[in-house]
Amino acid sequence: MARWDPRGEERLRTAAIELFLEHGYDNVTVAQIADRAGLTRRTFSRYFADKRDVLFAGSDQLPQLMADALQRVDPKIPPFEAVLHALTDIAPLLGDRVAEHAPQRQAIIASSPELQERGHAKFADAADALARELRDRGADESSAQLFAEVGVAIFRRGFSQWVASPEDTDLASRIRQAATQLSNAVPQRSN
Amino acid sequence: MARWDPRGEERLRTAAIELFLEHGYDNVTVAQIADRAGLTRRTFSRYFADKRDVLFAGSDQLPQLMADALQRVDPKIPPFEAVLHALTDIAPLLGDRVAEHAPQRQAIIASSPELQERGHAKFADAADALARELRDRGADESSAQLFAEVGVAIFRRGFSQWVASPEDTDLASRIRQAATQLSNAVPQRSN
Fold first, then answer.
1. DSSP label at B165?
2. Residue A74 buriedness (CB in 10 A; 0-12 / 13-18 / 19+)
3. Contact B121 A124 (CB under 8 A)
4. Is B121 in the A-facing interface, judged by CB distances under 8 Å?
5. Residue numbers of chain B with a pLDDT score lower than 50
6. What number is the ipTM of this complex?
7. Using 50, 70 and 90 to split pLDDT, how confident is the model at A96?
8. Which residues of chain A neighbour B143 with C-beta distances below 8 Å?
9. Å from A146 to nearest chain B CA?
């Protein structure tokens, strides 16, 4: 019987990512992943529900993580700016968690419509969680959803930029850059 | 044998929406929809691939419609404003097409995670199509995706507001209102 191995999860993830890149996501089985990691299928299922879960494990917490961060932002800060605060606040934590395999994960997800759908759903959930929290802060129904979705678009853009060259700067800076890019493009109030 | 009936599609759609609202989307079969419309299953499959398609028929064209509209916008207009132009340009056409059952459709989609996922995927495709077109216009990679996604968020917000009371104003005005709402919330350039 396999003994508990604190590095089991990481070994499985590394094996899965190698195999997905070598053979294409659709052509890889859980048995092959376990085999490459030198572990059993049973051990695999201790850590992950299925092979898709290897790529998304942890990201189920993203909506709650974002909502909690928003709750901690000073209630006097207006809604849209509060969303930006929340996103840059959680950036260091997220950056640490996903940094290692981030470019490979993005390439694998981009190669599969099924994975892309899961990715879209994840970010839609995140936007919904932020919108709920904004309404709790007193934002009106109509702006809450809009600001939440635009916040998530900024986050995704910053994340992609950061993943492309994580050594250049940190995720929070990339998120702020994306927000500035949008500020510079949006028609100004006086228009 | 059923004869060609130009109103077949509309009868099937009306029947489907009634049944979805009465019994819940998951509990309705294609046979029941055809039955309620007084048509055969074979006639149903002339118009729709499956019951989900009744709610999304036509929306597969949304990405191309948005991209084509963007292509028609004066190339001198900067990218983000060009997206807003394109979205308000297609609004009258979209408004006419979906006006009749729009509130019911939204309620049914909101009731089913499967339908919501399809909806998210549809808007993600629309953002990708806009981003491609922005790059063709010369926008850089990094701003193209961001502006496209924010444009789609504005469109969705305007659409929801319009669907809630279509008699109050037109879809294009609702999209412009959502854009203004965002302008007013985004930190200004001087900051």
1. -
2. exposed
3. no
4. yes
5. 1-2, 191
6. 0.81
7. confident
8. 181, 185
9. 6
